[in-house]
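Ticket #4471: structure output looks truncated?

Reporter: J.K.
Steps to reproduce: submitted the chain below (112 residues) through the standard prediction queue, then opened the result file.
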Amino acid sequence: MARPFVHPPIEDVSLEGVLYALADPHRLAIFRRLTGCGGTMNCSTAAPCDLPKSTLSHHFKLLREAGLIRSEKQGTQVVNMARCDELEQKFPGLVHAILTSSDACESDGINR
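Returned output as attached by the reporter:
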């Protein structure tokens, strides 16, 4: 039997945890894809294709535990969605600022 996903209540989500999770370029890329799709996305679609499955599982777990995404099993797939509305309530403007600044870095050709 599969273990249930851990999703912290928004009250337990910390600024430090959010920033730590998004400091990794792969996790930031996954989160950007999830926020850009406007809905839900399965793991293989949201993730960079050049990473092993075990590494992707680790990244999705850290994003979940940081409170950035919600994951649920649907048949054989895991579907993920960004928790933007909840994060906006707790940290107004934070997600927008991170995504805007990462867009600017990407368009300037700055690699992390």
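Triage note (M.O.): checked the attachment and the full token line is present. The radius of gyration is 14 Å.
Status: closed, working as intended.
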